Amino acid sequence: MDNDWIDEYHEGVRYGLKGKVIIKEFSPYQEIAVIESERYGRGLLLDSCWMTAEKQEKHYHECLAQPALCGAKNLDKILIIGGGDGGTAKECLKHKEVGYIDLVEIDSKVIEICQEYIPTIGGNAWNDPRLNIAIEDGIKFVEQAQQDSYDIILVDGSDAKGPAEGLFNRDFFENCQRILKPNGIFATQSESPEAFLKVHIEIINLINEIFNYSDPLYGWVPMYPSGWWSWTFAAIDKPRYLNPIKRRVDCIEQNCQIWSPRWQKGAFQAMPAFIERGLKK
Amino acid sequence: MDNDWIDEYHEGVRYGLKGKVIIKEFSPYQEIAVIESERYGRGLLLDSCWMTAEKQEKHYHECLAQPALCGAKNLDKILIIGGGDGGTAKECLKHKEVGYIDLVEIDSKVIEICQEYIPTIGGNAWNDPRLNIAIEDGIKFVEQAQQDSYDIILVDGSDAKGPAEGLFNRDFFENCQRILKPNGIFATQSESPEAFLKVHIEIINLINEIFNYSDPLYGWVPMYPSGWWSWTFAAIDKPRYLNPIKRRVDCIEQNCQIWSPRWQKGAFQAMPAFIERGLKK
């Protein structure tokens, strides 16, 4: 069969990859599809929205993980909410200092399908004894977790609708703040300043109210709406995400495609004028 | 008639806007089309590639023009190569200090169609007595221009194929260097580091050989392939584009949507690791 176009539609815009659907299934939470694309290798869609692809995953996973992993005081205990494709876990496990990771994914089907059809995104993470997978609702998980439990919390969820909706509100962020160690770092994807302007600004303002220090970082994920993406980092004792620790940088830098200390410094500065004017003072 | 999808295709990827084609004509150089889109207002395509749209033009024009206009010693004489939609000229003319602009566009039909169907992109520039339009080949124009003629040269051409192909080679850049005043600034769009990786690196390396100072700047134009875009700035006596002059910033800052001194500082730093490794040392 010839390849066809598979598109994500968003408010009068579509972004399509030429390829073939190789599996499409429904879980209790969402539709899960994997395609073989000509340009980016295998790609994952949830509810017809692009999540990741083999040759594009570093654009997202490095940017979410490395500013946090390179800046936190310790890397003993890491929590990932979502991240069922394994890419964020793989990115964390580049660091030898990591003690263990709790990966809390609500949808076991996402993990099963990614392990079977796109195993390269999680790579060795799936076999690393430091990775503990919990099939649970991340919102309940952070409610029940003990205070000061984690050195790093990374929220790797889909858009602020469907199963990920509760990952972008005050209760959730307050629980993350409570269970984060005082010298740790919190990070979440915070949507596109272009395609999801309203929710982007809401996320930044909320996190800014709840944590002592917070800053959005701007990058690119070509397959996401507008291609322009953001992640927001937060901390309690000081803005540790702004200052990568040299021994950690040395450990991972050659193994990164987008991220570098230089890139990160620029990406934290590159806030467009209309967002700077739109944020609460 | 219902709206339909109008797509640009690029190596197994497509980016489409929902809308209606309102005019499509052939000039001696290319196919020119204007659409009415639901999300971004009227948009221009040349040879089926997205050029600009009413609600997205600032992503491109501010980033090409303002680092140059805010940094050059003087703004007496400006040269724009290409730029037939008028957006770069409008961006320059925000500055009261501008003496005059030579806009050298090869295709008169692009100007005619933009003036008639998307007049907002050029806006008042089309009626500003400081704007001189020359319908000429930009490559020949820079060959014939006198040494030290311009304070600013902005190359606002389409991709490195078709009529714009000669805007990305050594002869052209050397002529630009020759006709630029020693305290001026040269800038060109330099393609996507993702969708046009090879030509992106070639442009940066060439400009770096020809000018004493040069730096790429990274931003976003959602409608271009990958959404991730770059512009490269160059200068002769010092890297003036890095230091916006305060009185110029004060004159235009409130009137910019993407550009600000903060954004610019970040955008010059935000070079991804794979490009930093790919450039000549």
How would you describe this protein?
- 2 copies of one chain form a homodimer.
- With 281 residues, the first copy, chain A, is an alpha/beta fold.
- Chain A is built from 10 helices and 12 strands.
- In chain A, a hairpin with a 7-residue loop joins strand 11 and strand 12.
- In chain A, helix 1 (57-69) packs across helix 2.
- The longest helix of chain A has 14 residues, at 197-210.
- Chain A is globular and about 55 Å long.
- The A-B interface holds A 5, 7, 11-19, 37-40, 194-195, 218-220, 222, 226-228, 253, 256-260, 262-263, 265-274, 276 and B 5, 7, 11-19, 37-40, 194-195, 218-220, 222, 226-228, 253, 256-260, 262-263, 265-274, 276.
- Strand 2 (13-26) of chain A pairs antiparallel with strand 2 of chain B.
Summarize this entry quickly.
The structure is a homodimer of 281-residue chains. Chain A is an alpha/beta fold. In chain A, 31% of the residues lie in helices and 32% in strands.
